[in-house]
Specification:
Blueprint lengths: L1 H5 L3 E4 L13 H11 L4 E4 L2 E2 L5 H14 L5 E5 L4 H6 L7 H17 L2 E5 L4 E6 L11 E5 L3 H10 L2 E4 L3 H17 L16 E9 L3 H27 L12 H7 L2 E4 L1 H15 L3 E5 L8
Parallel strand pairs: 1-2, 3-4, 4-7, 7-8, 8-9, 9-10, 9-11
Antiparallel strand pairs: 5-6
Amino acid sequence: KIADESGFYSFHVSEHHATPLNLVPVPGVFLGAVARETRNMRLGPLCYLLPLYSPLRLIEEICILDHLSHGRLDVGVGRGVSPYELNYHNVDPQDSREIFEEALDAILNGLTNERLNHTGKHFSYSDVPMELKPYQSPLPAIWYPSSSEASSTWAGEKGYHYVTLGATEAARPRIDAFKKGLVNGNGPLTPLEGFSGGAAIGIMRHMVIAETEEEAMAAARPAYDVWYANLTKLQRANTKGTWKAGFTPPDLEAAIEAGSILVGTPTHVLEKVAEHTGSLGINYMICAFYFGNINH
């Protein structure tokens, strides 16, 4: 409620399975509850892991959530970056991209037509009545998070809204690739008011803010350590060894230097937000305040 009343644009929640990195493996259920407690900010799974869903079933969930939130739903979609999580669901990571793209085609088809007809390798639907419609017309905004240049270009060409993460210099070519794809495509599929060009182009930043830098660092260090251990837990368990995430450093100081976490006083963090948005040419920032062992 505080975030809702403070003017935050949207509340995004990721989807992960069998890992303490995120304990909201069913984002639709969680956001249904959040919809009742909020009035203004949008709600966005970021993202639904499409290879784990029946497209028809997810079409229905999207429509219900859009109505429960009175048209405040943003729909993030992805294939799932963790091969271990996909394997637990008996999905071959090698096939996940193909399944994802086919599922997305079927979902967009069902959200925008009176009947769902789709014939593909992984899903087939024949003349299914689409009795549920989204609250938003023609459909909710589609978002796509990516940590690769090729997928970023693809998202731009499709006209989806976009978010990336990680070190500033590593993110820059991905953001540029998305912008290039957006120019080469037909523009935003679902233009959003208040965003230059109609497309949200963003990055995620962990943030720890306190009255003094010392207080912020004291809270940030254990939180970052716990978060990083959670991030790498499945890979370490499945490879029987140590592992370092490629997109973010393993220690707090290096992460601050890389720009993936902003730590300090309100004034300092606000300056960093302006620096990152200006240098990267973005118009959206996801602020991750609640991670690791940070409590209420």
